[in-house]
Amino acid sequence: MKQQPYCLVLGGGGAKGVYHIGVWQALKELDIPVNAFIGNSIGAVISAFLVQGAEQELLTIARSMNLKSLIRLHKDKALADELSFKEHDLSYWQGVYRNVVEKRGLDTTPMRESLEANIKEDVIRDKGIDFGVTTVNLSDFKPREVFVEDMEPGQLINYVMASAAFPGFSSPEIAGKKYLDGGLYDNVPFRMARRRGYRKIILVDISGIGFNRRPKTDGTQTVYIKNSIDMGNAFDFNPEFIEKFWQLGYLDTRAAFGQLIGYKYFLEPDDNLEREWSEQLNKDSAESLHSLFPDNMKHDRRVLLKTLEVCADLLGIERVKQYSYRDLMTAIKDQVKTLDNEVQELIVSRDLQKASPPTKLLDAFVKEVFDKKNRNKNPYFYLKLLQSFNPTKTLTLAESAVRRLNPELAILEQFLAQAD
After folding, report:
1. Which of helix, strand or coil describes residue 246?
2. Would you call 185 exposed, middle or buried from its count of C-beta atoms within 10 A (0-12, 13-18, 19+)?
3. Of 8, 227, 355, 383, whose CA is between 20 and 30 Å from 235?
């Protein structure tokens, strides 16, 4: 039976909008049908590309996105790129602000030129795909929810720009009225989709700045996708952030549709390995470790899943990545080996004797252990270092402190014992 299509609702969030691209790539991969697009701000911009079918153009723009691709910066060389924002004092920026006010907002010509080069209004209208944006009529102080059939001929790009007119940017003008970012009214326009009559909705919330209404999904088939990790901000154009947030959108979407499982990590389901692990697990050990799992995991019968999650999180394993169970098991063991080697390197470099570590180093180490905020190494590193010397009263107290502050270490030890 053919699946009924969804209405895709994309929220605002500036540079974080690359998340939407990852969402779309996952939906295409999963063959999830979409026949309507409603967006706000960057969500409106991306929706326009998707309605037109200009995915390749969108990918090209996203990969080279930076502040200069959105706004025309000051002629002063110091304002030639986003890095300069960290290089000037308050009085300088007060002058810049006055200049912006006089010109009624930052010049968004680069963004407009990009849209005009890639978005074809006649193509979007001819597609017959439902498309809507939110914006705020600044002249009348009224919000507007505008669908493509309500957009005056030749004004589609203006409405997209109006939806994305972040406060401080220049305000687009349509029919003598000025407009601002729709996030001032509804940053994630789920209600707009409901009023349009849609009941199958994919709602994508990227934690953007604005008025984020709590969606009331009763009576709908809504798939709510929200960034599972807080990272970056609306004007963070760091390439590493862009790449990771893009990937996060893809992974969160696959998880939302049941293709990936996990709490903080993204794992491919593996019932066979779960069963094998449970069958081999010592019951006494399992019972003793039960209380050490976080409350939200305690009733989960997928023992290996939650064990891998706890161990990976403790060791700081990369989260924005798709893993098989065995991939994550390998990553955990590799990280443990790395930390083991770091411990041995420290011991050799300080010429420490197993029987009597230097008092100075021990005092500093104990201070770090008891003051959790000051620790700059992984808890496993400290545990392994303590265990590298003959036990003394002080070392025993220090180890107890490490274990008390990090009960997950017992889960890691149990995993390593069983995985060998």
Report:
1. helix
2. buried
3. 8
Q: Which long-range contacts (CB under 8 A, 24 or more apart) does 295-303 make?
A: 296/263, 297/263, 302/261, 302/274, 303/274, 303/277, 303/278
Q: How many residues does the chain have?
A: 420
Distances from the Cα of 292 to the Cαs of 137, 298, 331, 392, 394, in angstroms?
54, 8, 22, 27, 25
pLDDT tens column, 102-148 = 555 678 888 999 999 999 999 999 999 999 999 999 898 899 999 99
CA torsion angle 284 287 289 291 (round to 10): -160
pLDDT at 92: 43
pLDDT 10s digits, 241-287: 999 999 999 999 999 999 999 999 999 999 999 999 988 887 777 78
The encoded tokens of residue 171 equal 């305000």
Model confidence pTM above 0.90: no
Q: How far is CA 161 from the centre of its chain?
A: 25
